[in-house]
Structures are given as C-alpha cells and as structure tokens.
C-alpha cells in the first residue's frame, strides 16, 4: 500500500466507530484527524456520569506540567522537567498551557488543603497530649500553638462569613438592578 493510502487508512481507523455487538449504544473512541479536533463531539465527552475535556496540550506538555507547577522559578522548572528554558517560556505564553497550569495548581492546592484538614483531628489530639505533659515548657508551647490556631481559625471563619454576606449583597443588588441595554 502506498504511504499516502496508508496514512488515509490510519486516519479513517481513528474515527469513532460503532462497536459491533449486542449494545448499539456502545461507541469505541480513538484519536481524531487534526481537522476534526475542532468539532464539538471531540471537545467534550461523557462517561460514567462524569464529563471530561480532552486536553489540547501535547504529551510532552502534559507530562512536564506537574514538575513545572511545583517549581519555584522558570529556570528550575525547565531543568527539573527536562524542557528547554526557551521552550518553557514559549509554552507560558500559550493561553491553553497557562490555563492548564493554573488548573493543576488550583487542584493541587485543594488536595493539599483536604489532606491537611484530614490530619486536623490527629494534630489536636497531639496538642491535648502535650498539654498534659509534666514539662511546663512543653505545655506552654502547646497551649500557645493551640490558641494561635484557634484564633486563626476564628478569623478565617469570620472572613468567610463576611465574604458570603458580601456576595449575597452583590447578588441581591444585581437581581434588583439588572443591566440596562442601550
């Protein structure tokens, strides 16, 4: 088979195809042609009641993303990910890459917050145990940490309540005063 015919056969084989068998709703998915990537059916797919997006990043960008997200400088990110510094700077100018990087960092921070929150009961148990220590300096330090933590927690809760109240006020104002069209 000629090289051109072989390419065409591969591209046709990579299109969605109804799977043979008893379930006509079952569809087998494969990579689309480049020109098909803009079509809506390739941009978003569902499975197991979960929506997901197909990334527009290259494989190299996707594999370097976690390392880049965790680095403190561009030079360090380039070195740790094995990507040239100029390549990394070019990637950082691409809106899709910047968005994926921001999403990755946001998801990582949320995961870290959840893990820290899961450890909170154990930390409080340790505070309580140390506060029962016979060593007065340990008890005092534990008490100081506990008070500082409780104070910060109260401040965060107060800020959240204020933010929620502000958001409700803005929403009420927006609902009562819709924008006027000229």
Write the layout of secondary structure elements.
Elements: H1 3-13, E1 17-18, E2 27-28, H2 40-43, E3 44-47, E4 50-53, H3 59-70, H4 74-81, H5 85-92, H6 95-131, H7 136-176
Antiparallel strand pairs: 1-2, 3-4
Helix pairs in contact: 3-4, 3-6, 4-5, 6-7
Walkthrough of the structure:
The protein has 182 residues and is mainly alpha-helical. It has three domains: 3-53, no CATH class; 58-119; 133-173. It has helices at 3-13, 40-43, 59-70, 74-81, 85-92, 95-131, 136-176; strands at residues 17-18, 27-28, 44-47, 50-53. A hairpin with an 8-residue loop joins strand 1 (17-18) and strand 2 (27-28). Helix 3 packs parallel to helix 6.
Overall mean pLDDT stands at 77
Q: Give the ordered list of helices and strands.
A: HEEHEEHHHHH
Give the DSSP E fraction (strand runs of 2 or more residues): 5-15%
DSSP summary: helix tally: 7
Tell me the domain tally.
Answer: 3
Please report the total strand number as a whole number: 4
> What's the overall geometry?
flat
Overall radius of gyration: 27 Å
Fraction in helix: 55-70%
The main sheet orders its strands as 1-2
Structural class call reads mainly alpha
Largest sheet: 2 strands, antiparallel
How far is the N terminus from the C terminus? 63 Å
Task: Give the low-confidence spans.
Answer: 5-34, 39-43
Structure described in brief:
With 182 residues, this protein is mostly helical. 66% of the residues lie in helices and 7% in strands.
């Amino acid at each position: 088979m000629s090289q051109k015919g072989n390419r065409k056969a591969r591209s046709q084989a990579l299109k969605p195809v109804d799977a043979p068998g008893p379930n006509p709703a079952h569809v087998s998915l494969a990579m689309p042609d480049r020109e098909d990537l803009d079509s809506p059916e390739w941009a978003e797919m569902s499975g197991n009641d979960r929506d997901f997006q197909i990334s527009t990043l290259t494989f190299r960008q996707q594999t370097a993303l976690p390392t880049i997200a965790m680095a403190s400088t561009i030079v360090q990110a380039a070195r740790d990910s094995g990507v040239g510094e100029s390549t990394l700077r070019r990637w950082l100018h691409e809106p899709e890459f910047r968005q994926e990087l921001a999403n990755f960092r946001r998801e990582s921070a949320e995961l870290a917050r959840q893990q820290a929150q899961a450890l909170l009961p154990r930390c409080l148990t340790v505070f309580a145990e140390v506060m029962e220590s016979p060593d007065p300096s340990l008890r005092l330090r534990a008490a100081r940490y506990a008070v500082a933590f409780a104070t910060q927690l109260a401040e965060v809760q107060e800020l959240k309540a204020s933010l929620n109240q502000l958001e409700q006020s803005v929403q009420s104002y927006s609902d009562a005063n819709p924008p006027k069209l000229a």
